[in-house]
Amino acid sequence: QVQLQESGPGLVKPSQTLSLTCTVSGGSITTSHYYWAWIRQPPGKGLEWMGAIGYSGSTYYSPSLKSRTSISRDTSKNQFTLQLSFVTPEDRAVYYCVRGDGYYSSSHYDYWGQGTQVTVSS
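Predicted structure:
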């Protein structure tokens, strides 16, 4: 059973950088052929795919967020990390880390973290 757990600050100030970490257990983030992605859901809105990192370390980003999004990983800790810079109130959302079968937004995601609420406020 694969488990994913998000961690990071629940409150970020405008213009600052949000950093979230996903800790994976029950499976390796380097195992073929899985991809590890970040998805968010603003209040009252739908899910938004942000980007992913593949089992080989390649990264993929949503065109709308690419300029300020970075996904990395630490294989020794079996973790991957999201950094979202220059945050605004529109970035307020529940952020999920997930496992998928592809590097695109319409991939199938079989395992999800519980999600973590992030608020942007001064």
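Summary: The mean pLDDT is 96.
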